[in-house]
Amino acid sequence: MLISAIFSIFAVGLVVVCFIFAGSKYKLFIEENKADFQFLFMAPASLWLIDRVKLIERLSTQITAIQFKVAILYSAGKQVPQYTKMFLAQTISVILLCLAGGSLFAVLNGGDVRFVVFAIILAIIIPFVSVKKLDEKMEKRKQDIIIELPEFASKIALLVNAGETVQQAIVRCTMMKADQDHPLYRELNDAVVKIKNGDSFNGVMEDFSKRCGVQEVSVFTTTILLNYKRGGNQLALSLRELSRDLWEKRKAISRKRGEEASSKLVFPMVLIFIAVLIIIAYPALRIF
């Protein structure tokens, strides 16, 4: 009971102290960089704690990998440090809620230390789970881009073959789906804006490839940059060949997603089977 009470006072006290010292200092920072991060109500306390213990400086090596993923996922540009900090704040917010919640449950259940132990174990696991979710988002984004890329490449090939320049073809195909919230078209919209502003086409395409961070996009942009000056049939032919390879990858991803969806249905189906079995067997057992 004593251990649970001490831990509860420490956990809840830590959250309260962080909120008191944070005040309204981070209000504007959170508003400008909230993106799709969760637990924003806890963000001030978490951000103050990050600054207070100098977490980013102490874990600079480990955070570099997170920064790379955040930069690609959120197309952050100059906001990469801020978004990385918000990601860390989200993770710390979950840890604080877990510790505070576990300690309160322990006190409410008569000082059961098991709740405290469980909360500590969860708090240790949470950072690894957060990074894993970031990896899963990266993989989903990559798959979404690969699924859409062959269709885009095919349209570019058709337009170039019909006499359009590469720049005009890219702008036209992007504008057709400018309103779609898709990772490929988000990056293409930025590229189109730069093309319209008169930026170097080579530089725009190289920047587009870096921001996507997908090997297939790099191959696509390299194919365009190697052949666009020649134009006409040569570029259209290269894009059609690339498009065929991309369609095969799209089919493979679709099959993989279908298999994953089927495997996720196995557990609910087992539960339904057990429930039906109980419903049928119970009356029969009552008779005996």
From TrEMBL:
<feature type="transmembrane region" description="Helical">
    <location>
        <begin position="6"/>
        <end position="24"/>
    </location>
</feature>
<feature type="transmembrane region" description="Helical">
    <location>
        <begin position="87"/>
        <end position="107"/>
    </location>
</feature>
<keyword id="KW-0472">Membrane</keyword>
<dbReference type="GO" id="GO:0005886">
    <property type="term" value="C:plasma membrane"/>
</dbReference>
<dbReference type="InterPro" id="IPR018076">
    <property type="entry name" value="T2SS_GspF_dom"/>
</dbReference>
<keyword id="KW-0812">Transmembrane</keyword>
<feature type="transmembrane region" description="Helical">
    <location>
        <begin position="265"/>
        <end position="285"/>
    </location>
</feature>
<protein>
    <submittedName>
        <fullName>Type II secretion system protein</fullName>
    </submittedName>
</protein>
<keyword id="KW-1003">Cell membrane</keyword>
<feature type="transmembrane region" description="Helical">
    <location>
        <begin position="113"/>
        <end position="131"/>
    </location>
</feature>
<dbReference type="Pfam" id="PF00482">
    <property type="entry name" value="T2SSF"/>
</dbReference>
<feature type="domain" description="Type II secretion system protein GspF">
    <location>
        <begin position="152"/>
        <end position="283"/>
    </location>
</feature>
<keyword id="KW-1133">Transmembrane helix</keyword>
